[in-house]
Design brief:
The chain has 414 residues and is of the alpha+beta class. The chain is built from eleven helices and 15 strands. It folds into two domains: 273 residues, L-amino peptidase D-ALA esterase/amidase, CATH 3.60.70.12; 119 residues, ArgJ beta chain, C-terminal domain (Ubiquitin-like (UB roll)). 32% of the residues lie in helices and 26% in strands. A hairpin with a 2-residue loop joins strand 12 and strand 13. The two termini are 38 Å apart.
């Protein structure tokens, strides 16, 4: 993508950018001993000034202790100075001790960087139902400030520290001009398994130097989430720890962004793009996955109906298995469309796999099976569904279902 403008969008991708590219941010990570390997398992993002903050969280009834802490921190005034993250242990379903540990993490890191506890958010990911090894966490927190830098190395250390079964780091950075000032928006995320819409199982972090208030930032973050993170699925499971946190330092020098600001739509587009890139990276990195699958639904009675249908198709184990096997079985697709619980005219549905039309006006179309096979062997598969009923449209992302998914999750704790 490099420095090219993304189609007609008012921003450009910064190839060597990171979550520390926006003005005012430092990051870092280290290994404190929560993971059995020597991979980083404790990291943080710190802002040199109080940053406007917003968060979106899992809809799972069993919410991990760090979510309670982070909701409290952001709710205290909409400002954050830091977010502290550990991997290797979810600190979920750990009762009063888990909450006490999360609060201790917040207080200890706040003291380590010289801010109040309410200005620190906490996030955790890993095994559910095990207490944190707080002796290791405390030691790690004490050592972490020395690892915080505004360099790409600091950002890389943080991105490593948030991973669990992920195979790759997931990062993106874009920049745009608002009020004659360069504004940067960047993100980092983790997620590979237990991924499903309604706050897909993931941790995501967005930094920006745009000047914007907490409420306005939350509005845009919620909108972006609905169109990106809430439109991906890997396995239909939603975890206890999902969290997306955005921080805006305000150091770019633009006039404060509001819905009436001429740069509002441009910033919203940049934020959505950052979230979309991260969401698609999570889907592509699904546990055991070999392909990114994109489902495009058009012609629905509403965007909401299109979204429900797209999510049903992308979440179908039969569709996912067919993609893995490179089987152009459009019957799996139309069956998923029909059970989505949305208005569908059984006589007007078109389906295509890539550019190959397999169904037109709900009637089978003869197609080249060998050509379809070659297409489905690729690393990205696009499925198109046109209902011919209205103007509603939506896109969802997922991955194929492979033997390795079972292998990975059968041995997750060991």
């Amino acid at each position: 993508m490099g420095q090219d403008i993304i189609s007609s969008q008012p921003f450009k991708v910064v190839e060597d950018g990171s979550i520390t590219s926006p003005q005012g941010f430092r990051a870092g990570g280290l290994h404190c001993g929560l993971k059995k390997t020597t991979r980083h398992d404790l990291g943080a993002i710190v802002c040199e000034v109080p940053a406007a903050a917003a968060g979106v969280y899992t809809t799972n009834v069993f919410q991990a202790a760090p979510i309670k802490v982070t909701k409290e921190s952001i709710g205290a005034g909409g400002l954050l100075r830091a977010v502290l993250v550990n991997s290797g242990n979810a600190n979920a379903c750990t009762g009063e001790q888990g909450e006490a540990d999360a609060y201790e993490m917040r207080a200890r890191f706040a003291e380590a960087i010289g801010v109040t506890a309410e200005q620190v958010a906490v996030a955790s990911t890993g095994v559910i139902g095990e207490n944190l090894k707080m002796d290791k966490v405390r030691s790690g927190i004490d050592s972490l400030p020395a690892q915080l830098t505004g360099s790409i190395e600091g950002a890389d250390g943080f991105s490593q520290a948030i991973l669990t079964t992920d195979l790759v780091q997931k990062t993106i950075c874009v920049e745009l001009e608002i009020d004659g000032k360069k504004v940067t928006v960047a993100g980092a995320a983790k997620g590979s398994g237990m991924i499903h819409p309604n706050m897909a199982t993931m941790l995501g972090f967005v930094t920006t130097d745009a000047k914007i208030g907490s409420e306005a930032l939350h509005t845009l973050l919620r909108q972006a989430t609905d169109l990106t993170f809430n439109m991906i699925t890997v396995d239909g499971d939603t975890s206890t720890n999902d969290m997306l946190v955005a921080m805006a330092s305000g150091l770019a020098g633009n006039d404060e962004l509001t819905p009436h600001h001429k740069g509002w739509d441009a910033f919203a587009a940049a934020l959505r793009y950052v979230c979309e890139v991260l969401a698609k990276a999570i889907a592509r990195d699904g546990e055991g996955a070999t392909k990114l699958v994109e489902v495009q639904v058009r012609g629905a009675v509403s965007d909401e109906a299109a979204a429900a249908i797209a999510k049903t198709v992308i979440g179908s184990s039969l569709v996912k298995s067919a993609v893995f096997g490179a089987d152009a079985n459009w019957g799996r697709i139309i069956a998923a469309v029909g059970r989505a619980g949305q208005p569908v005219n059984p006589a007007t549905v078109d389906i295509r796999i890539g550019d190959i039309v397999t169904l037109e006006q709900s009637r089978p179309v003869a197609f080249d099976e060998e050509l379809a096979l070659e297409y489905l062997k690729g690393d990205t598969v696009v499925i198109g569904v046109d209902l011919h009923m209205g103007e509603g449209a939506a896109t969802a992302w997922g991955c194929d279902l492979t033997y390795d998914y079972v292998r990975i999750n059968a041995a997750y704790r060991t």
